[in-house]
Amino acid sequence: MVSIKGLTQTVVSALVAAPAMSAPTELAVNTTSKHSTPFAMAFQHPTNNQLAPTRFGLLLFPSITAIDAFGPLEFLALHSMGHYLNLSVIAQTLDPVSSKPRAMNAAGSSFGTTLVPTHTFANPPALDVLIIPGGIGTRAPDLDPAIAYVKATYPSLQYLITVCTGAGIAARAGVLDGKFATTNKRAWAETTGLRKEVKWVGKARWIADGNVWTASGVAAGMDLMNAFMGYVWGEALAKIISDGMEYTPSRDPRVDPYAELNNVTSVYDEMVGANGRVVGGV
């Protein structure tokens, strides 16, 4: 358990100084409990005039990149210590799924993590947020069931989050049409070529267009999730979580050294604001 000595006054002061929120959607956590954690104490009501999401889902398929999933999920796992959240893992079947690469593995290595789904595409749970990771598996030829699931599920979601080449799955499902989105810069040409109807933003660590949040490559998903938590639950909570992880997130999505490294540009590069949302958007 994380110690809260010396932290109580800091957190309480941050919450008191926070701007007025919309009407509360649930009771704040009792910060005097001996079981309180910094994460429980930092609870804030949603800052975006919506009910806070509680039902999260991870789209699972073979050969995902582990940090695309577990990086963002760790933020939520820590938040769940003081605020009710639920995670479902959805795949084509209930069979265990490995992150070991099925291709691009010239060394013949056997190195990966095995995950067990909780639900199938045929019997999915109700969700508020769906997270789509990237990885070598996004290039697989047998993703039609996953793509169909994303297309069918998106209309009922509060938010859709993609990380890395996971944007390619969302793009193929048609749910990014007309939206500004970004993806892995090393896989830029391949992923953006999947759907020309998407307004692909080259220089962006992450971007939010309406209820769709997309991150650049791999670790950028953690920067997106830090921003997402600040947007939904407040900056005080986001800072408590990132400090608890001993992680310093990139806070300005316009600073994208990997776009420069991979010589990626787009006519839409000026459309991402300092807060990660589309310029002129909400």
Automatic annotation (TrEMBL):
InterPro entries: Class_I_gatase-like, DJ-1/PfpI, INH-QAR. Residues 105-229 form the DJ-1/PfpI domain. It holds the Pfam family DJ-1_PfpI. SUPFAM superfamilies: Class I glutamine amidotransferase-like (SSF52317). PANTHER family: ARAC-FAMILY TRANSCRIPTIONAL REGULATOR, THIJ_PFPI FAMILY PROTEIN (AFU_ORTHOLOGUE AFUA_5G14240). This is ThiJ/PfpI family protein. The lineage of its organism: Eukaryota, Fungi, Dikarya, Ascomycota, Pezizomycotina.
